[in-house]
Amino acid sequence: MDQKSQDYPLSEVPQAARKSFGSLVVVLLGFTFFTATMFAGGRIGAAFPLWPDLVAIIVTGNLLLGAYVAVLGMIGARTGLNTALLSRFSFGRIGAKLPDLLLGFTQIGWYGWGTATMAVVLLRLVGMDAETHSTLAYALMILFGLAFCWTAYIGYRGLEMLSVVSVPLMILLLAISLWIAVGDGGGGQGLMAIQPGEALGIGTAITMVFGTFVSGGTQATNWTRFAASPSQAVWASLIAFFIGNGLMIATGALGALVYQQPDIVDVLVIQGLTMLGIVMLFLNLWTTQDNTIYNFSAVGCTGFATENRRLVTIIGAAIGTVLALLRIDLHLIPFLLLLGTFIPPIGGVIMADYLVKRRGSYPPVATADLPDFNKAGLAGYVVGCLAAYFSPGIPPLIGIIVAILVYIVVDRILTARDTPATSSQ
Length: 425
What we know:
By secondary structure, the chain is mainly alpha-helical. It has a single domain, classed as Hydantoin permease (Orthogonal Bundle). Helix content is 76%, strand content 0%. It has 19 helices and no strands. Helix 1 (21-32) crosses helix 8. Keywords: Membrane, Transmembrane, Transmembrane helix. It holds the Pfam family Transp_cyt_pur. Its main location: membrane.
């Protein structure tokens, strides 16, 4: 099997195969331009006044997300490894199956959500109800489930080709929607005067902002490993996950604030952008769906020890399509809150292992002597999840910090325990 044609699923990306900064930015922006993010923004926009609450939540949530992804992105660029291979170091050869399973499931879940949403919303935009026309809705889900994986099947090059075309178009469509919303809201003063119609906690809102892309962000190394330098990976991650994701949240939030309608599709209809809405929805979902299933293929190749990434891509798309048919799209907000709680500690463990324990250097993955289980990594993840779930405040941030601290403490305890036995031999 030609690893190059399969995007190096089981090895480091060589320097000769690295991509340009512009290429990396458009691929990551295509990933973060996601309809679900606008839906989440809509829920937040309907619950908070514009200033200072809404602005502070959007900036804080996306800054945390951008910083988190930037650190992981830098690690991916330095090592040339994807998230699944990095997990082998931080969790152990067998222990890595845990984050593989979690990350793989979340990506398949997102693929199912996007596939179902495309079918349901398309029918709504043309005046049809998915429940009434269920046979047509299911047929569209199967069609989109198969179609969306095409560019991911090609690999990084396919993702890049689609994003180069779609990202500028989506930016233009978002700008038009924002311009209309500001005008309909009465300008700056009018927006300030609008009072929210729903209730939502600030911690929950920030978790939703973080949670929309924390699973994808944790796997951003799948693309930043192609960066020509660590600094390019950091800046590309910040542009995509702080600015790009922030733009999506802001668009959904502003539409909800002005029209008191958290559903971005209904907002587009109110604005008279039905046809543009169909175009934006299709491009928006496609550029995320292919990245999502590409993530799954990277995890799947490592989990099943196969270099046939394209076959894993097709299998993942099939599973995601089944989830779409089961209507996973009806459970978005609980899904986001779970992601914001249980995924960030994985990134915290990877950071602690690479930056603290390994001091910023990994041996070649093919020759590395790795234990079956990295006890410090597993302990950091479990305690990080518990802290995020039960502690007040911002669960994603708490989970990351606790996972890092627990990893460091447990690793030092284990090292100190094993040192005397080693030195006495």
